[in-house]
Amino acid sequence: MLKVIMYTTGTCPYCQAARQLLKTKGITFTEIDVHSVERRVEMVNRSGRRTVPQIFFGNWHVGGYDDLAQLDAEGAIMEMLNPRFAS
Predict the structure, then answer these.
(1) What is the pTM of this model?
(2) Which end of the chain is more exposed for a tag (fewer CB within 10 A), N or C?
(3) CA distances from 68 to 20, 37, 76 (A)
(4) Measuring CA to CA, which residue among 1, 27, 2 is closest to residue 18?
(5) Would you state the pLDDT for residue 4?
(6) Mean pLDDT per 10-residue section of the chain, whose length is 87 residues
(7) Which secondary structure element, helix H or strand E, spans residue 36, and what is its range?
(8) Ordered structural domains, the chain, with CATH
(9) Which secondary-structure segment (H or E) carries 29?
């Protein structure tokens, strides 16, 4: 399974929803808090976006919570975590 990384803040409701969705699916993830300037710059450089959450499956940028929820609605989260889809 690909490593899941999520850039977040502690107070973001979309971050909380993404956390819950991943936990419900039994998916472990690494959370990176972007309160520090360095981490926020890292997130923007990596995703091209300034909002949280920003979610990555391996090197693939899933996007934010809405994108993750769409993958879930399509039943594709577990399939996309398969290393054969890594780019």
Answers:
(1) 0.93
(2) C
(3) 11, 25, 10
(4) 27
(5) 97
(6) 95 98 97 97 98 96 98 94 71
(7) none
(8) 4-85 (3.40.30.10)
(9) none
